[in-house]
Design goal:
The complex is a heterodimer of chains A (222) and B (83). Helices cover 22% and strands 26% of the residues of chain A. Chain A contains five helices and eleven strands; from the N terminus they run E-H-E-E-H-E-H-E-E-E-E-H-E-E-E-H. Chain A has a nine-stranded mixed beta sheet with strand order 2-1-3-4-11-10-9-6-7, with helices on both faces. Chain B is elongated and about 45 Å long. Chain B is built from two helices and three strands, in the order E-H-E-H-E. Chain B has a single domain, classed as 2-Layer Sandwich (Mth169, Chain: A). Helices cover 33% and strands 30% of the residues of chain B. The chains are: A alpha/beta (222), B alpha+beta (83). At the A-B interface, loops of A face helix 1 of B. Chain B: It comes from Nocardioides dubius. Chain B: Its EC number is 6.3.5.3.
Chain lengths: 222, 83
């Protein structure tokens, strides 16, 4: 499959995400924020970083970039979209996912190996994992605290839309230890930690992030 | 030309770590009696001509679309006196 990886001005993790896509067995296609078409990709990754310098709010400016108009339209038709870190923030600002991400409650940037539980393995991006599988990937964020009103949190829990939850420690104050969520359809996933930094034994905490990049193939051939 | 001001504040129920940091600094600097600090944003929009009801409605739209994220923030719009 062809998976597009969007680069915005200020994106940091696009090259790592492209590499993870390739190691996951797919073709990576570089997409630019100013593009008006998605070059025929089957899925899109919005990688981490500080798009548009995090000006105004994280993801607030990126949401209105030309490529996002296309991504939002494609996501609404069912195209798999994965937003990692800043990408998660962009998905929330775009209203593809509910809630928002605010500054960490302890006010410090956090960078650590983080244990997660994959609670929903029925999304386009998590089908390679077993339900409730525990994985360790990299977490690095300054504004990663997931917030939403009680009704939204109840809806997410009730519909099984919490994709990943922090285990052992809540690193940023996210409500209900939420690390990642999905939309109603399960094609759009937002995740604060970085699976693309945990795909090879050489560096990072292992290879348990790779499932996010092999799931698409598995769900296609399942 | 007129100036329209949009004030954006985090909703009361949303934690404001920056406000908390400022509040925490005050006693260390010898300022007592401040019970809480919330930090917001102020946007000053210079607009062409008179501020009509239509113009104001448009600025409300700007605030709701871009300047504020209504999921976590409230905003107010007011026209500033020419003086």
């Amino acid at each position: 499959m062809k998976i597009g990886v969007v680069t915005f001005p200020g994106t940091l993790d696009d090259v790592d995400a492209q590499r993870a896509v390739r190691i996951g067995g797919n073709e990576a296609v570089a997409l630019w924020h100013g593009d008006h078409d998605l070059q025929g990709v089957d899925a899109v990754v919005l990688p981490g970083g500080f798009s548009y310098g995090d000006y105004l709010r994280c993801g607030a400016i990126s949401r209105f970039s030309p490529v996002m108009t296309e991504v939002v339209a494609a996501a609404e038709k069912g195209m798999p979209v994965l937003g990692i870190c800043n990408g998660f923030q962009i998905l929330c600002e775009s209203h593809l996912l509910p809630g928002a991400l605010i500054r960490n409650d302890h006010r410090k940037f956090v960078c650590r190996d983080q244990v997660l539980r994959i609670e929903n393995n029925r999304t386009a991006w998590t089908s390679a994992y077993a339900e409730n599988q525990e994985i360790t990937v990299v977490l690095k964020n300054g504004e990663g605290s997931y917030v939403a009103d009680e009704a939204t949190l109840e809806m997410l829990e009730g519909e099984g839309r919490v994709v990943a939850r922090y285990l052992e420690v809540n690193p940023n104050g996210s409500l209900r230890d939420i690390a990642g969520i999905t939309n109603e359809r399960g094609n759009v996933v937002g995740l604060m930690p970085h699976p693309e930094h945990a795909i090879e034994e050489l560096c990072g905490p292992g290879t348990e992030g790779l499932g996010f990049f092999t799931s698409l193939v598995e769900s296609t051939f399942a | 030309m007129a100036r329209v001001v949009v004030d954006v504040m985090l909703k009361p129920e949303i934690l404001d770590p920056q406000g908390k940091a400022v509040q925490g600094a005050l006693p260390r600097l010898g300022f007592d009696g401040v019970l809480d600090v919330r930090q917001g944003k102020r946007f000053e929009l210079e607009v062409e001509g008179e501020v009509t009801a239509e113009r104001l409605a448009e600025i409300e739209k700007i605030a709701e679309t871009l300047l504020a994220n209504p999921v976590i923030e409230d905003f107010t719009v007011h026209v500033e006196d020419a003086s």
